[in-house]
Each structure stands twice: as C-alpha cells, then as structure tokens.
Amino acid sequence: MRVLISRALLTGAAAGFAAAPLAAAEIKVKVEVPKLTVAEYHRPYVAMWVEKPDQSVAANLAVWYDVKLKDNEGTKWLKDMRQWWRRTGRSLDMPVDGLSSATRAPGEHQLSFPEGKSTLGTLAPGKYELVVEAAREVGGRELLRVPFEWPPKAAQNLKAQGEHELGALVVDLAP
Predict the structure, then answer these.
(1) CATH code of 93's domain
(2) What is the tens place of the pLDDT at every residue in 65-90?
(3) Which domain holds residue 141?
C-alpha cells in the first residue's frame, strides 16, 4: 500500500513539474548616457526598438523624452531621433503607457524586457537588431545597432560602443 501511495505522489509531483511554465526568454539592456563637458547641456532623447531584417519595427522598447513640459511640448523634438521617427515614432500618440518616460541623467541605465511581457511582447523566431538612437538639443545624434537571433539558444552578452551621445551599450540575452 505504501509503495502505491509513494508512486502516486511521485507521479503527481513529476506531472506538476512538467506542467510548470518554462522561464521566458529575456532581453536586458544597459545603456550609458555619457557626461559631456559642454557649455549648454541638455539630457538626450533616447529611443530603443527591435528591428526586423527588412528594417520594419518588431517592437518599441523605450522612449525617453521631456514628458514634463506643459501642453505635451516635449513631443515636438521626438522627430530629432530621425530613424525611430521614420520607422514608428510618427505613428504613435505620445505618451505611451509602459513605453515613454522622462529623459535620464548621465550614467548607466538598465532595462529588462521579458518575453511576453512589457513592451517586448512575443517575437517570432528570427534575426533582429536592437537599435538605440539618441539626439540632444544643441548636441548631436547617434545610432547604435546590435544584431541578435531570437530566441537565444544560450545566454549571450553583446556590446556596442557609442562615440558622442551614447556610451557603452550592453545587451544580455537569456534563453
């Protein structure tokens, strides 16, 4: 009798593990906004998105801009992030909940995008690029691209380095 109960419990426990959801893949991004020594400093507007091989947008991840200006005046300069604006920005009605937020001070900023949640959604398997674009008033504009394959088969650490408006960009992919 004990053997049957133990097997039934063991079989039930194993079935519970098999039915448990697998961990979802995730993209973690660390982007550096460099401290610039200039006469008139303004925090950069930054857009992050995932792009398909045909350069269409698979997912908007984040848009940092001056959300506190009265009458939504901060949206006026979103078009300075030219690539993002042409691909998807002009069709969005800002602010977008979960996507847009305030500009960030110089330093490293970390963001996490789990599959199926947040702005990442569910990407179809394939090749993509994570694109980060920054533009600053009385400053310059910079665009960084990091190619990756989704879903990742193993953990990956991908990097790109900016020269002026962006510093180090680190993309960690978790299966």
Answers:
(1) 2.60.40
(2) 998 888 888 899 899 999 999 999 99
(3) 23-174
Give the three-class secondary structure for 163.
Answer: coil
d(CA 75, CA 92): 11
Residue 169 contacts residue 160 (beta carbons within 8 Å): yes
Of 21-30, 45-54, 110-119, least confident by mean pLDDT is 21-30
Q: What are 163-172's pLDDT values in tens digits?
A: 999 999 999 9
SS3 call for 119: coil
pTM of the model: 0.85
Burial bucket for residue 171 (CB in 10 Å: 0-12, 13-18, 19+): buried
Nearest to 34 by CA among 147, 159, 139, 111: 139
CB 11 within 8 A of CB 151: no
Contact between 169 and 144 (Cβ < 8 Å): yes
The number of domains in the chain is 1
